[in-house]
Amino acid sequence: MPEEALGGHGDTLLAVLQGSRIGVLATDAAGTVAHANTALWSRTGFAADELIGLPLAELPIWRPSPLLGEQFGQALAKGESWQGQLELRHKDGHLMPSAADLLPIPLPLGGIGGIGGFLLLLHGAPMAEPPPTEALPAAFDRLTGLPGEPVFRKVLRDSVERARLTQQPLTIARVDIDQFKQLNEGLGTDGADGVLVEVAQRLSASIRREDMVARLNGDEFGLLMGEAASEPAPLDRILAAISKPMTVAGHPLAVTVSIGSASFPADGETADELISAADAAVADAKRKGRNQISHARPSSCADRGFGRRQILAGLRQAIDSNELVLHYQPQLNLFSGEIVGAEALLRWAHPEQGLIPPMQFIPLAEESGLIIPISEWVLDRACAQAAAWRAAGLPPLRMAVNISARHFRFLDLIETVRGALQRSGLEPRHLEIELTESAMMHDVSAAMRVVDALKAIGLRISLDDFGTGHSSLAYLSRFDIDALKIDQSFVRDVTTNAVNASIVSATIAMAHKLGKSVIAEGVETAGQMHFLRGRECDEMQGFLFSPALPAAEFEARLARGDRLELQAARTRAGSNRLLIVDDEPNILSALRRLLRHEGYEIHTAASGTEALELLAIEPIQVVVSDQRMPGMSGTEFLGHVNSMYPQTVRIALSGYADLTAVTEAVNQGAIYRFLSKPWNDEDLKGALQAAFRHWRAKANPPEVQPADLETVDRAVSVHAAPHGAPSCGNR
What we know:
Layout: H1 10-18, E1 23-27, E2 33-36, H2 38-44, H3 70-78, E3 82-89, E4 95-105, E5 117-122, H4 149-166, E6 170-177, H5 180-206, E7 212-217, E8 220-225, H6 233-243, E9 246-248, E10 251-253, E11 257-264, H7 271-287, E12 293-295, H8 308-318, E13 324-333, E14 339-350, E15 354-356, H9 358-368, H10 371-391, E16 398-402, H11 405-408, H12 413-424, E17 431-436, H13 437-441, H14 444-457, E18 460-466, H15 473-476, E19 483-486, H16 488-491, H17 498-513, E20 517-520, H18 526-534, E21 539-540, E22 549-550, H19 551-560, E23 576-581, H20 585-595, E24 600-605, H21 608-615, E25 622-625, H22 634-644, E26 649-654, H23 659-667, E27 673-676, H24 681-699, H25 706-720
Helix pairs in contact: 5-6, 8-9, 10-12, 12-14
């Protein structure tokens, strides 16, 4: 089963297990305990830190003799599931019979599990029969290894709440195997189970790492996908992957599925509404003949009682009824950490439906033309709020207001802005107008005239969502704009995606060359922030500091002088900073013990993703990485390091070498040296000393003497002008 089957939702699953009343132990791929929940501690008296890091078979909770039951030990050795009874030893010494379930884990749990790991469920009191299914946490479906329906619903609820805050769309899909009853009757139970496993594997292989697939019930699977998956392409890929011929129990089969999808918030605002909409859509796909995709229709969501007609009718009176409100997201200087601006973001506080996110009503407002009076209201309210904060003696800041593409093309926009400034008394230099690439590229000549007129008033102009549109750099250099806003789709994985890291770095450098400042949107982690600071990005906004806030909460933060704790990377003179990356805690501990007297400042990470986040914060000089890790292999990780931090010296240390991958990485310069496990202590120490010498040589190259330059110059001239041909004087 691919490790990505759980997607980026392992932490939520761990939270489910942590809250279970059943004692739970989870191990990594080596059988070492990596997680123990609260119920286990209350049952045995042993705290989590007394168990984590120990091999499962050597835990102090087992009865001293015999150590483990024979069947349990065999199942543990073979990586098989097992049910039975064991005697546990409490920390105070008394023995406790306990019913137990041993389950192989085919998925990573929040970055700690891996293929071949285990879940051990301990039920406490002895039982004459195996524990009933409902007594077990339905974390995994035992046949396919996928998360079960309760976990899927929990993750979906959390994702909906996050999407509501971030205003990002979300897509779910239900996948039903067509005519599964006939398959079951023709193949028998074992053959039908084989079909379910094969479909689960193909689904898991077809989704992105951040998406999720679960087995809901019988022949039904659920998919949870982010905004990029709201396009039909990922579902088309899944449909094609499953329809490829498969062989189960020696029988060639042609299996198809029907897929129904629904998106937040258009098709539902809660997890239950989205699931109902997807159920209706999959039924529609089956009615149309199966083996196809159907998206939720407006009628499938009619029971929510708030469709397009109601939105348009409500919008017409929302302004007069004081239902529209503004929230303000802080914008921060990345060198001082101070709040220097606020972006005004629109919300609709509907008296019956509650807070409606803009993604649900702004597109309809654009289509209907209602966006014009709404934009005028936003401009008036934002300018008035900024002027009120200024009059109250709060620190000066810039108020950023988005202008829609439709409003941008209206000739009276200039007068609308002038009127808002005059009514509020706000100085023009404190107002920033945010325009999108699509608005400016619709009619470039007209857009340039509007921008020039806005600049003549004294406003600041920024280009929003830069990189997601289709602007020409030649045109961009002609617009008199002050700032570029890097879209959050590039920022989201800037510490782990070498391509996006290069795009962001190049955008910042290009903007500065053109005399424009840069603000990054959607900054959520310290690693992202430090990466941007390291590339001299000027400003940022995002959940790392704060979501958009009601006016009173924003004012309170501004009055307190809240600022971003930059935690600048420390520059310790003479410090040799070493990062060790390995998903096995015992390996990290062993290397720390071995190197504790070598004078290194040692950092550790359990995965490539965690390590890339740390590299964005700490100025690491040498990296030592394992090869076989969940989510990202060592060579993939070191390739990212090579692209993003070329000065860092990279060493692979592994007992599971893929020679082809390692050879390719060495040839491409991604790896400085390869060492194998188990290592020789002295050889490893020597390799690290050589690596730090290599880093110092790269960081401080020897000075080139004038005589050497003349020698190089003559050599270049000879190669450039063979057979006596004249050399070019201007190189």
